[in-house]
Design brief:
Blueprint lengths: L13 H5 L7 E5 L6 E5 L5 E2 L10 E2 L1 H13 L4 E6 L16 H9 L2 E6 L13 E5 L7 H12 L4 E4 L9 H7 L9 E2 L4 E2 L1
Parallel strand pairs: 5-6, 5-7, 7-8
Antiparallel strand pairs: 1-2, 3-4, 9-10
């Protein structure tokens, strides 16, 4: 594979420029004409001004954005994190401490697609899932869902499971298959004043 680039001058190439919505946009593209995979990096994504002081320069974020865009357009199959919902899992949005928005954002920044699903509307873990993510359910997962998750793992699926202290996760068949047992305890980090 090789990498090539070209700059589009909107005055000289107005038709090509129409495809780019914002001035300063960098478009990454891979694949045969008509079947390209594209990813855009906007000028606003190139620098982080949040930590910049008056006398310092903003942090350049372009390297990570470019790397992720190249990976996105050249990867044959996306990496998909399938987030189970329906059992009182932690919310994916918001800034409250109980949300998993930071983890979701980190996955997205690292080129993962995060999709949600529920066994109410799905009869199995979706085939597109690279791994199944169960984020701190507050209600026990019932036996039927436990069997579906166990079947998914037996077929080579992957699981990322977190549990909050004192919350019943259920999943006896899945946990037995994995050889995992949850202890009802708390880890304390006194230096950062965290309870895990």
């Amino acid at each position: 594979r090789h990498l090539s680039y070209r700059m589009v001058d909107p005055d000289l190439e107005p038709e090509a420029a129409k495809k780019i919505m914002t001035d300063g946009t960098i478009v990454f593209s891979s694949g045969k004409p008509g079947m390209e995979s594209t990813r855009e990096v906007y000028r606003s994504q190139l620098f982080d001004y949040s930590a910049a002081l008056e006398e310092s320069l903003p942090q350049f974020m372009g390297e990570g954005a470019f790397t992720n865009a190249i990976l996105k357009v050249t990867r044959a199959r996306p990496i998909v994190a399938c987030l189970l919902q329906g059992y009182g899992e932690r919310p994916t949005e918001g800034v409250e401490p109980q949300t998993i928005s930071g983890a979701k954002e980190m996955l997205t920044k690292n080129n993962y697609e995060v999709q949600t699903f529920s066994f109410i509307s799905a009869s199995e873990v979706p085939q597109a899932c690279t791994f199944l993510w169960i984020a701190g359910p507050s209600r026990a997962i019932e036996a039927k869902a436990d069997d579906l998750i166990k079947d998914y793992l037996e077929k080579g699926g992957r699981l990322f499971l977190t549990e909050d202290p004192g919350m019943p996760v259920g999943l006896p068949r899945t946990l037995k298959l994995l050889g995992v047992r949850f202890e009802n305890g708390i880890v304390k980090d006194p230096e950062r004043h965290f309870l895990l």
